[in-house]
Amino acid sequence: MIGNELEKILKEEDKIRTRMKSFFLVLQRLKDEMSDEQREMVEKLKEKRKEAIENVEELLKRAEENFISSGCQVFHAKNGKEALNYIFSEIEDEEMVVKAKSNVLREIKLDEKAREKGIEVIPTDVGDRIVEILNEDLTHPTGPAAHLSAEHIASRLSEVFNTKIPPTPEAIANFIRDDTMKYIMKAKVGISGANAFASEGIISLVHSEGNISLVTRIPEKHIAVLGIDRIVRSAEDTVTFAKVQSLYALGKPITAYVDLISGPSKTGDIEKKIVKGMYGPREMHVIFLDNGRKKLMKRFPELARCIGCGACVLVCPAANVAASLFGHSGHRSARGIAYSYFIEGLESAISRGLFLCTTCHSCSEICPMGIELPKIMKEIRREAVSNNLRIDAHERVVKLILEEGSPYPKKS
Ligand code: SF4
Ligand code: SF4
Which ligand has its closest atom nearest to the C-alpha of 367? Predict the structure, then answer.
């Protein structure tokens, strides 16, 4: 099945070229911006992530207590279904909600499942909104529309909205902002993930557009879904996390916004009585999502250190070409395949491109957390093969060896 889809994608040469060009620009910035202090910061974060994963149970317990004492409601979801059920019970009768860009929300298929219930989920990130409106696949965790040229986007948006949008990044961004703001101002519920969260009961959200501040401030209710592997010890660690993430995701020392949120909006200014929902949300719900992460942390603890920067996607030859076919819907590239193994099982990992990895090691060379993705790919492959789960190409080679004594077809 993946073979047919791959053939189709290989014919989309323009998209492959645009994607590679965008990825290359970020890689150039990353190369230009790194200083000795930044390298030291990356090493420190690596140690902190290792320590947090080793003590995850203790830190999660502390985080829960702290979120509750700041007025949040905390829910533990074993899987995506439990997280979605909780979210839908909190959305109640609303027909539209807004969301921040989040790999975890993609992982649990929030948009798709909400649509089945008649709820419209409006993405507020520009790239996310474009791929949603144009019904395209996203190409990179921080640059979902990096494979689409301004000309292509403007012409398709003009068709969808029956208007004339000039083919420039400025005109497209202005159009998307005006359209999306209408939804943000109306929504009663805003849903986000979190780049990281601290055991002190704080979530951090890193963004450039300013949309996440609006999604988490304007609606009356904020629901944050936290992958439990994104835990760190302190608020300071979430800031280091944000700096390293933006360095490796965008090639910039820091994004325009780093929001730290620890609870709903409140005031105690009148007779010292607490009134919730002053200028921000009245309610904040925090969902701790496992969805295979406890198993992942046990088997591949180094993979749990991942900060989701996406640098491994930029350098990956398989991701550059196969794009969305290589990885999980929420997590691109080899790390996405490893996630799909824990979330959905071995067969899913195969269908998401386990055998497309060339084991070239480009990803492990660039990874700030020193994660050996090819090693992990090989380990999961060994398990697949010992369970007789092979792809068509393997079957053809096995047949040739058995019938002709060689993996290579005879020259005719
Ligand atoms: S595996 Fe490494 S490079 Fe890839 S997203 Fe995670 S931290 Fe970034
Ligand atoms: S080793 Fe695999 S996942 Fe890593 S860059 Fe090479 S092809 Fe991509």
Answer: 1
